[in-house]
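Observation: inputs received (chain + flavin-adenine dinucleotide).
Thought: call the complex predictor directly.
Action: predict_structure
Action Input:
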Amino acid sequence: MLELIIVGAGPAGITAGVYAARKRMDFLVISGDIGGQTAWSGDVENYTGYQFVTGPELAAKFEEHMRRYRIDVREGELVRELSRSQDAVTLTTDKARYEARTAIIASGKRSRELGVPGEKEFKNKGLTYCATCDGPLFSGKDVAVIGGGNSALDATLQLMNIARRVHVINAASALTGDAVMREKAEAAGNVAILNGSSVTQVYGEKMVQGLEISRGGKKERLAVQGIFVEIGLIPNSEFAQGVARNEYGEIKVNSRNETSMEGVFAAGDVTDVPEKQIIIAAGEGSKAALSAFRYLAQHKF
Ligand SMILES: Cc1cc2nc3c(=O)[nH]c(=O)nc-3n(C[C@H](O)[C@H](O)[C@H](O)COP(=O)(O)OP(=O)(O)OC[C@H]3O[C@@H](n4cnc5c(N)ncnc54)[C@H](O)[C@@H]3O)c2cc1C
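Observation:
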């Protein structure tokens, strides 16, 4: 019986881990990976103290900080179910079953899929959801970025320095991301923005050869070797069925990061806290750990 289990090792989970370690709590971290979405971000220019850092660099700094405390991290393990009995939380993963007095859900978000023919077939065969991870593979090639928000623009800004040409396929009538990023993308000579267009099919043979798009009621084909899907994110909250969530699947929390389930706290992008940012996730992670610590101090087990 542990005092705490933290699910996720993105900025929220790692920061919760650092705080829990400093409170000398008996805990472990279970996570699919280390770094979470931060490891996929391009340039991060809004994390206080770092005027400029890349996502992978910041994720490495987070990990280095966590490792200083010799935290028990079960990397590559996924939580499938979370439930509560009288005085414990049970977490079932794809490898084992754990019990703790408290839990912090910091499982973040994952990429939304296009849901069109060819997407599954060409996943990792030219179609990807991570420009930071896979962008360098498309040096000198023609690529398409699907989406028009901040994630799509982040991908575009990275790819325009690597690829020959970047087509931005945006369903809305205008880009919706931050003005600074929009302006950089619009000013680039090798970026073509196709507003009001949506993907209807991905085609190819062994690898992606292009996509079919629908624009103004007409279908057309666009030959590209790489497709970067950046159409938003969905919360990794399916394993927490017994915890109250909002209409987007985000876990509802109060200002102390308490969820509807006793002893279960949540932090970061998986919650309904507005604005999904690294610094917010990290701050929420620290609050969640302190709330779990307080909960343990106030209960006799
Ligand atoms: C392309 C891109 C660019 C971005 N750029 C910026 C930026 O410049 N500045 C900024 O502030 N923010 C940026 N963000 C947003 C920022 O990355 C997120 O707000 C932040 O990472 C959220 O942290 P988190 O810890 O809540 O979740 P995540 O980072 O999503 O981490 C979740 C963790 O939980 C793990 N996990 C998920 N499901 C399970 C499960 N079932 N069992 C176990 N583990 C699980 C994952 O493996 C991961 O380790 C960007 C995001 C993207 C996608």
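Thought: report the result.
Final Answer: The chain has two domains: 2-110+233-298, 113-229. The radius of gyration is 21 Å.
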